[in-house]
Amino acid sequence: MLLKHLVKDISYTLVQGSLNTEVSDIYYDSRKMTPGGLFVCIVGTQRDSHEFAADVVAKGAATLVIQHDLPAEVVAAMPQVTILKTDNTRYAMAMLAAAYFGHPAGEMTMIGVTGTKGKTTTTHMIKAVLEAAGHRVGMIGTNGVYYPNHHYDLNNTTPESYDLQRILRQLADAGCDSCVMEVSSQGIMMDRVAGVRYKIGVFTNLYPDHIGPGEHQSFEEYRSWKGHLFRRCEIGVVNADDENTAPLLEGHTCRVTTYGIDAADADFRAGHEYKLLRTKNMLGVAFHVSGREEMDVQVNMPGLFSIYNALATIAVAKELGLPDEAIHQGLSTAVVKGRVELVPVSHRFTILLDYAHNEAATESLMETLRAYKPTRLVVVFGCGGNRSKLRRYGMGEVCAKLADFCILTEDNNRFEKVEDIIADIKVGMNKGNPDAKYVEIPDRLDALHYAIDNAQDGDMIAVIGKGHEAYRDREGIKTPFLERELIEEYAAEKGIE
Ligand SMILES: CC(=O)N[C@H]1[C@@H](OP(=O)(O)OP(=O)(O)OC[C@H]2O[C@@H](n3ccc(=O)[nH]c3=O)[C@H](O)[C@@H]2O)O[C@H](CO)[C@@H](O)[C@@H]1O[C@H](C)C(=O)N[C@@H](C)C(=O)N[C@H](CCC(=O)O)C(=O)O
Ligand SMILES: Nc1ncnc2c1ncn2[C@@H]1O[C@H](COP(=O)(O)OP(=O)(O)OP(=O)(O)O)[C@@H](O)[C@H]1O
After folding, report:
1. How far apart (Å, rounded) are the C-alpha atoms in residues 86 and 272?
2. From the alpha carbon of 142, which atom of ligand 2 is closest?
3. Alpha-carbon span 190 to 253, nearest angstrom
4. Residues 289 and 271 in one domain
5. Residues 323 and 364 in one domain
6. Which ligand gives the minimal distance to the CA of 307?
7. Is the domain of 135 the same as that of 206?
8. Are 33 and 108 within one domain?
9. Ligand 2: which of 113, 116, 121, 245 to mutate, most ligand atoms within 8 Å of CB?
10. What is the residue-level pLDDT of the chain in tens, covering all 497 positions?
11. What is the largest CA-CA distance in the chain?
12. Are 352 and 281 found together in one domain?
């Protein structure tokens, strides 16, 4: 493709060379450069990749896009290279990549979900409802990329713009008519989603998070970047109960639809009367929706937060004109890998996997599960090695307070000894509840077996920390460890019913 066909949506100065330069592909990482490529020089949080200009040219780069001038001697040594200068190379990369891949977002109904918590869950719910309505759906987020019969992992919740555009092309080429994706504030701030127009933007909620070096400078800045989603979508579906919704919507250009539990005037609302559901295969909630629609809904995910995520999903579905049957089917079948994921091996007790690996997530999970009034709430957990000890104290404290029995074991030990990590967890437990009952079983597989062997009728066993991860890390070596399969295999071997 010729450069002149890629640059239509950016402003630039042609420093040298020609717009008729052939572009074989676009790169933002010098280590991946191949001959004929266009290299976008980015001023990152760690490196300024303008310093790799000579290196990529040596590897055959034909075009450079820069944001600040290169040293004169570097430019002098690359007379054959086309150089464009622009104000913001991250933004330029997004526009160049969109053009390079033929503006794939325009070929699908784009739905973006932002918020501190609930992005992954809500995107899964929306996908399930769309699929139940017969749509072919692509999904992008923390759990990776999904499209019919395909899945792969990602490094970022919202991928770098070039990767995002490549993925969107892949989805469109696979026949997806819709794409639902998580849009992180970082993704907006770093122009990873620049140029993408959304049919619907969803806001779940906002808590102080992601504030610090390399992320956001303040809560207000964090909020304002999330708010930018509502300047690039047609319809905004927002949580009317969140006190940050109004400031976040400042400057919005979309039509707004609201949902909530407390806000009496929300377009889609659920009261505080809801029913907790528990069967062998499911922990869920049932509730009534009123406002713009009247309907009874059942969600196969637990807790009050599931009602919020379901309300957002219902509002999206209604805005898209999807039928009620699809809403019911989608909400009662949506599963998020590793997030309160039930492993239905017994009628007598419930065993589930969850990715909670810090104090806040563990506390929220424990409180959610307690509401189902299990005979005992048992938690199997450890903490990662070579990571903050605060997590160990925090998770220990919360589990000692809220669980009836703790099985202390390994998480990803990395280069630490499991016994030392458990000793730290016990410090936190002692603070939370010095009388907490627990057992120490360093090998996680033995811990799972112990939990199953000693399960009592009506127990709820939460195996937390690893969620969807498929390995355990000991001394930096990762070996396969898929908890779901290990639990199923052991329960079958023991003839558990
Ligand atoms: C702080 C931050 O967001 N960093 C992101 C950013 O990296 P950066 O700007 O720091 O990059 P850098 O290391 O300074 O390098 C600058 C440039 O030099 C290039 N480079 C570097 C080395 C080299 O040898 N050659 C070379 O060309 C790099 O490819 C890059 O283009 O751009 C990278 C490429 O897109 C991202 O992978 C990286 O995300 C890091 C891993 C990260 O942890 N980000 C978090 C904060 C994040 O984005 N999280 C949100 C989720 C938040 C939520 O859950 O709500 C997300 O969307 O993932
Ligand atoms: N709407 C919500 N409000 C508060 N907590 C929620 C909500 N939805 C889910 N949670 C809780 O937060 C955890 C993470 O949920 P989810 O993965 O959907 O959020 P996320 O926004 O994708 O977060 P992250 O960026 O950390 O992956 C869940 O396991 C659940 O305990």
Report:
1. 53
2. 27
3. 21
4. yes
5. no
6. 2
7. yes
8. no
9. 121
10. 999 999 999 999 999 999 999 999 999 999 999 999 999 999 998 999 999 999 999 999 999 999 999 999 999 999 999 999 999 999 999 999 999 999 999 999 999 999 998 999 999 999 999 999 999 999 999 999 999 999 999 999 999 999 999 999 999 999 999 999 999 999 999 999 999 999 999 999 998 777 777 788 888 888 989 999 999 999 999 999 999 999 999 999 999 999 999 999 999 999 889 999 998 888 999 999 999 999 999 999 998 899 999 999 999 999 999 999 999 999 999 989 899 999 999 999 999 999 999 998 899 999 999 999 999 999 999 999 998 899 999 999 999 999 999 999 999 999 999 999 999 999 999 999 999 999 999 999 999 999 999 999 999 999 999 998 999 999 999 999 999 999 999 999 999 99
11. 77
12. no
CB 369 within 8 A of CB 349: no
Give 39's strand partners: 27, 64
ipTM of the shown complex = 0.96
Domains in the chain: how many in total? 3
Same domain membership, residue 446 and residue 316: no
Lining residues, ligand 2, CB within 6 Å: 115, 117-121, 142, 157, 204-205, 305, 308-309, 339, 354, 361, 364-365
- C-beta separation of 105 from 187 below 8 A: no
Ligand 2 center to 205 CA (angstroms): 10
Q: Are residues 178 and 270 in the same domain?
A: yes
Structural domain boundaries enclosing 195: 104-333
Please give the distance, rounded to the nearest whole angstrom, from the Cα atom of residue 399 to the centre of ligand 1. Answer: 34
* CATH, residue 398: 3.90.190.20
